[in-house]
Structures are given as C-alpha cells and as structure tokens.
Amino acid sequence: MLASTPPTSTGVFNRALSSLAIACICKRYVWHQRRHQINRRQRFHLVCDNVVREAFSDAKQRYGAP
Question: Which domain of life is it from (predicted)?
C-alpha cells in the first residue's frame, strides 16, 4: 500500500513568497531614500564638531594645558 502524499498548498506559498518579495523591495527603496538624509545623531555630531572647532580657533589653535 502506498502512502498518499499530503496536499500541497503551492498557491498559498507562492502568494506568501510574492508578498515577502514586495516587502523586501519596499524596505530597500525606503533605505535607499533615507540614506541620503541626515539623521538626529549626525546633526548632533555636526553641531558638536563646529563648537569644538570654534573653541580650538579661539584658543589660538592650541590644545591642552598652557
């Protein structure tokens, strides 16, 4: 007696795979758009770098104890 194979649900699998591919494509598009924007941490570092640069310039470009 041969064992019957369980019914396959390739339609459900294909739909899930298709929606997964679309989700991956959408995430990549959002990442690609976002990578050209400056985030909060980068803005903070830019401000801090400017403050340090001004303090260094005001100290006649000297660093450390006199």
Answer: Bacteria
pLDDT, one tens digit per residue, over 23-38 is 777 888 888 888 788 8
Token pair listed for 53: 């640069």
The closest alpha carbon to 23, from 35, 31, 33, belongs to 31
Q: State whether residue 61 is helix, strand or coil.
A: coil
Cα separation, 25 vs 58, whole angstroms: 50
pTM of the model: 0.43
- Cβ-proximal residues to 46 (8 Å cutoff; 6+ apart), any chain: 38
| Residue ranges in 9-65 assigned as alpha helix (H) | 10-34, 40-58
- Give me the phi and psi of 14, to 5 degrees please: -65, -40
